[in-house]
Amino acid sequence: MTGKVYLIGAGPGDPGLITRKGIDCIAAADVVVYDYLASAELLKYARADAELIYVGKKGGDHTLNQEGINALLVKKAGAGRVVARLKGGDPFIFGRGGEEIEELVAAGLAFEVVPGVTSAVAAPAYAGIPLTHRQFASCVTFITGHEDPDKTESMLNWQALADTGGTLVFFMGVKNLPNIVEKLWQSGKDPKTPAALVRWGTTAGQQTVSGTLETICGKVAAAGLKAPCIIVIGEVVSLREKMQWFENRPLFGRRIVVTRARKQASDLVERLSQMGAACLEMPVIEIEPAKDLSALDAAIENISGYDWLVFTSVNGVDAFFTRLQGLGYDTRVLGRIRTAAIGPATAKRMNDNGLNADIIPESYRAESVVSAFAGQNVSGKKFLLPRAEGARPVLPEELSKMGASVDEILSYRAVQGQAEAKDLAEALKSGRVDMVTFTSSSTVKNFMALLPESMAKQLLSGTTLAAIGPITAQTASDMGLEMDVIADEYTIDGLCKAIAAYYQKKTAV
Predict the structure, then answer these.
(1) Residue with the larger pLDDT of the pair 313 and 368
(2) Where are the beta strands (DSSP E) in 266-343?
(3) Which of 75, 142, 192, 485 is most open to solvent, judged by the fewest CB atoms within 10 Å of its CB?
(4) Domains of the chain
């Protein structure tokens, strides 16, 4: 086998900015070698059997020095492996990609370069700073703020940089900021020239400090800004005041824990991220089939004997149709059965499986389903309810009171998720969490089970808690937790709206 290295620009931090080809190369790789500045979220595209190797360099602390990285790439590719080398930004813009390729060429190994979005362009854009503008700058210069320390003299022509009249963008220069400012002053650059530093550009942790050449050092020191930063100097910086957008989003910078099962968390994570939040996925539940599916199988085999099929959750729909198809059936066997669903998400999942809901109650609680059936003749009718272990008994009890015959079948269960108790406790203790979200009673119970009982309330002190609805909030209350946010509409969309409204109100006070 012939090995190959794909040198991939991972983009500046926002995982959505990687190219399609970059994702395809990660997915095809046997080995993924990734940097400190490459988003760890990109690793989800790697194969389950891929070898993941971290070689990050952070403030002089090198997991592996550049020579070691070069040797690693040669070794893995030389052994016939396909290697995805993930580098933050673009590999050829101060990414030392050229050095790595020189080693591959010397070893006679195949490679491809997949360009990426450089932080020099992306970080200012996310800070509301256009690098060029017809009225302010007709050229832009990219400059290293940290030259090779082994050089005997600088390769930078400071006089030429000061005289360009365009935008100057410095990489890795936060430690050398005073020297950069001094060199430009000495070369005649106007001290009133606007300047800005953008830290962790394009991520939820983005921080921007702006001023002028004569004030920027003091402002950066006061803000405690550290690497990684991009420095932008030029008249275009003045446009930030009216063009900033990324940092204006309603949840910008809020660190929110998502406790949903990992497979189901994507919609909530996506919505919160779009509003600016930094999401910490800590799945405290996982959805599994019920231990004994014989009752569900028997119900499906005798499905023609039921008049109504009622789903109370997306998980119930998934579990039912997995078994239906596993037994060799499809929706044709449900032709005469009437159906009901709690909530639009449940109804949509039914629709995805080719089944429309006859009844969708106005609100998304079992009590509302009971009310919806008040106008139906259910006496003597047979109901099938595929649901979770430990589900609330309200619905089957009330339907039975109305004369219905109800088979409540256990089709799935929510078990303890894979969130690490140590990581969760550390995140809360260190103050890295602004809010914890709960989307079911199970998430509340399993979340609390992960925390030391004697320290739970102390760890959650000062942390905002949000529930998807009153049932989840009541479970929390029973366990000694009071919710700060309770969605009026018991859906993911409703929860996100309630969270945004909470922080908007808090900011306005």
Answers:
(1) 313
(2) 278-281, 285-289, 308-311, 338-341
(3) 192
(4) 4-116 (3.40.1010.10), 121-248 (3.30.950.10), 255-284+418-508 (3.40.50.10090), 288-416 (3.40.50.10090)
